[in-house]
Amino acid sequence: MARLRQMPSRLQPAPRRLAPLITVGEQGRDRLRDATQEWRKWYKTARWQAVAKRIKERDNYTCQWPGCGLISDAKYAMVVDHKLQHHGDEQMFWDEKNLQCLCKPCHDMHKQRQERANR
């Protein structure tokens, strides 16, 4: 009786151009957005850190979302948020009248839901 030979595999690795689309969790998604959206680097500047600190102090470390009012000076409890999306407009990005202090839960839940609905 003749022996059966194993057939060669027809599977090939995924093309390189697809690799960046596969991200792992929030960090991978952030890295991809940082690479594709130039304005995201503004958040990593000393100028942004100074503006964010001024906004938090101006709003007395109090969440400005209607009905929340959480007060916290913990480092990551409050987020400085744009009231109106800037879409890469540098003047709108730095406009302090367009900035507000939100607690992280309100920013990540309510504000993000509102922005997705407006798209």
Short overview:
By secondary structure, this protein is mainly alpha-helical. The protein has four helices and two strands; from the N terminus they run H-H-E-H-E-H.
H/E topology pattern: HHEHEH
- The best one-word shape is elongated
Helix content: 25-40%
User: Within the largest sheet, what's the order of strands?
Assistant: 1-2
Give the biggest beta sheet.
2 strands, antiparallel
Set down the secondary structure blueprint.
Layout: H1 25-36, H2 46-58, E1 78-82, H3 90-94, E2 99-103, H4 104-118
Antiparallel strand pairs: 1-2
Structure report:
Helices cover 38% and strands 8% of the residues. It contains 4 helices and 2 strands; from the N terminus they run ααβαβα. The protein has a two-stranded antiparallel ribbon with strand order 1-2. The longest helix is centred in the last third of the chain and has 15 residues, at 104-118. The mean pLDDT is 87. It comes from Cypionkella aquatica.
